[in-house]
Amino acid sequence: MNDKTATAKAHTNIALIKYWGKKDRELNLPTTSSLSLTLNEFYTITAVTEGKEDTLLINNMMQDPKRIHQFLDFLRQNVGDFPPLTVISRNMVPTSAGLASSASSFAALTAAVAKYNDWDLSEKELSRLARRGSGSATRSFFPGFAVWHEGTDDESSFAEALPATDLPIALVVCEIAGTVKKVSSSDGMMRAMTSPNYAAWVEESKQQFEEMQAAIAAKDLAKIGELAEKNALDMHALNLTATDRRFTYFNQMTQDILAKVKELRQAGFLAYATLDAGPNVKIITSQDQAETIQAKLKEAFPKLRLEIATPGPGFSYIKED
User: Fold this and answer.
1) Backbone phi, psi, residue 28, to 5°
2) Which of 5, 172, 202, 279 could, after both became Cys, cross-link 254 (CB 3.0–4.6 A)?
């Protein structure tokens, strides 16, 4: 048995303009293009080595390998064959709690498998392949701000980095729950697409996608926050108006924090909220206000776990000793 090991690291990302719905489930093509910020503080390190069958360990705990096995088989059939793999991941982000753990996980896995097999793939190609494991993983290969083009087919749906910027953006991450959510992202998207407001959200999101790129280029943090908050809250409103089993990821703490964010903004702070598929709130602010906002939230919610996140790097390979 081959004792070769390849290890890759990828950071999670937070979508400022969301992906919420698929126009092609097999190819994982989204209904809208999306735009994200890669985060330095949250990441996944994944090592792959030959095994007797495809297996998955996350943080030293054996997991159901079904989703990973399906993805590895996709790579075997579409890029090149390789033996069964043992996948060992260290996740520095809560799993399935709305903090995009699948994004960093599938980006790191795709990169590690490519390295293991000596595939000479561009970032664009890695991004396109990772999309088949997790849509948001397309964006985790890139530093700072990245866009995922919705595309019309397998070749045209990929992510790429926006021009580098020294924008002093920060996120105050409010970790309300680190448990696995009751409604998966995939199921949530399918339900949300039954909302009578879904088509209108898609059209507005396309406009916001363009406006967000302009706001980033102009280094307008307030506009970035305003666009991100509206896009996210309108996305979550779709869940509440779904005709197929309406639902919400929000809990009472989510609502309380959203109210506090509005209060902070009215008091003159730069503070805008965004949320993915989970109850956790991320507050968009500037790096010089982040600690103050963190302190005010800690005062209001003493038991709340808070962390400041800043722009992160693209994926990398870790050399084995």
Assistant:
1) 60, 45
2) 279
Q: Enter the tokens of residue 98.
A: 């709305």
Confirm whether pTM is higher than 0.90.
yes
Q: Is residue 321 part of a domain?
A: no
- Assigned domain for 320 exists: no
Q: Which of 113, 134, 165 represents a domain boundary (last residue)?
A: 165
Residue 217 to residue 161: CA distance in whole angstroms? 13
Residues 144 and 238 in one domain: no
- Which range marks the domain in which residue 41 is found? 5-165
pLDDT in tens, 248-266: 999 999 999 999 999 999 9
> Quick one: DSSP state of residue 85?
E
Q: Residue 243 class from Cβ within 10 Å (0-12 exposed, 13-18 middle, 19+ buried)?
A: exposed
Tokens of 216: 């980033």
**Structural domain ending residue among the three candidates 123, 147, 165:** 165
Q: Which of 231, 225, 228, 282 is nearest to 258 (CA)?
A: 282
**Can you state the angle between helices 290-300 and 252-266, rounded to 10 degrees?**
130
What values do phi and psi take at 169, rounded to 5? -85, 150
The label of the residue with tokens 């703490």 reads 253
Of residues 278, 211, 321, the one with CA closest to residue 14: 278
8 A C-beta contact, residue 54 and residue 74: no
Cα 197 to Cα 22, 200, 234: the distances in Å are 16, 5, 9
pLDDT in tens, 53-74: 999 999 999 999 999 999 999 9
State what percent of residues in the chain have pLDDT above 70: 96
